[in-house]
Amino acid sequence: MKSRTSVDRLRRTLGRADLRAVPESRRALRELLKHWGSPERSEVAELLTSELVTNALVHTGREAVLTAVVGPRGLRVEVRDFVEPDPRPRAPSIDDGTHGRGLVLVETLADEWGVRRHRVGKSVWFELDAEAA
To answer: pTM to 2 decimals?
Structure first.
């Protein structure tokens, strides 16, 4: 088992609008989190990561970069894209089907989340504490 001061990292460039990156990102994150937190926390992390990856690829039409860091304070996942508009959680309507719930899930299930602006584009991120219920 690794010490509480060690850091593990995942970084992937996701191809332009390539939705195959969603399950691939989940698998890579699952491998990274093999010895982190409870299985339930890892499942939440996978779900939220797939939501951020899907949003970046579907709503930008460009490539994105996934970064996940496991450290002493927990897990931080960022998905960076290269377009300007900030994402906003919105209440999905009945006409949306399964669309429109991603950021609401992130807002609800993450311990912290936000948007960090870059010179070009932004990163949408979330954090999870391994020990949280």
So the answer is: 0.83
